[in-house]
Amino acid sequence: MNSEQSKNAVVTGAGSGVGRAIAIALARDNWRVALIGRRDETLRQTIQLAGQHATNMLPFPCDIGSAEAVAKTGSEILAAMRTVDLLVNAAGVNVPRRSLAELSLQDYHRMIDTNLNGAYYCLQAFLPQMRARKTGTIINIVSDAARQASPKAGPAYSMSKFGLLGLTQSINAEERLNGIRACAILPGDIDTPLLDCRPQPPTSEARAKMLQPEDVAECALLAIRIPHRAIVEEILIRPRG
Hints:
The structure is a single chain. This protein is α/β, with parallel strands linked by helices. It has a single domain (8-237), classed as NAD(P)-binding Rossmann-like Domain (Rossmann fold). It contains seven helices and seven strands; from the N terminus they run βαβαβαβαβαβααβ. The chain has helices at residues 17-28, 40-49, 67-81, 105-133, 155-175, 204-208, 213-225; strands spanning 8-12, 32-37, 57-61, 86-89, 136-141, 180-187, 234-237. Strands 3-2-1-4-5-6-7 form a seven-stranded parallel beta sheet, with helices on both faces. Helix 2 (40-49) links the parallel strand 2 and strand 3 (57-61). It is globular, with a radius of gyration of 17 Å.
């Protein structure tokens, strides 16, 4: 991004995990960051963790699974920031009862609405002004479950991540001529609160060997900082151990 462009970002899932790590990294890099998450309390915790860079952050509680809520919040963000140069879709959920034999219809819809539909709603909230300005970067936090489904991830989670990868590819296929680029980051196991939703949460020893949210944030910064003439379309990152 050149010096003539603004540095305004929107990060979903900013109240914990990867979304929080990316939001804080951006604020430290002098981005103005709109934080989206379900709970105002956790968004304000993210702001506190940013320390001296907290003034670069604005909280916007929103259920991204609702198209109406995203449209309203998107308008509020654009009114406050005027432009959005970067969208990071990091929100994601899973449930303990996730197998085909156990998954409830309610939980299925919640995962699809948050992990996939929510990303699409947020994209459509900010894509038109990116297209009009001929510039914009979208980072989608996907999963290596988008490469290979597994019982560990469960069908609804895998479906949502396969779809999010397809959305990323569609953005690059249709919008690159409009100056817009997208990157799908596909992490393996990450030590985040989402692990507590597994049927058998991993031990502290297992978590210590996993990726940390800051590792994924570094991948996002790589795709963001690279000159705008280049597109990092996908990053697959897994724990070394």
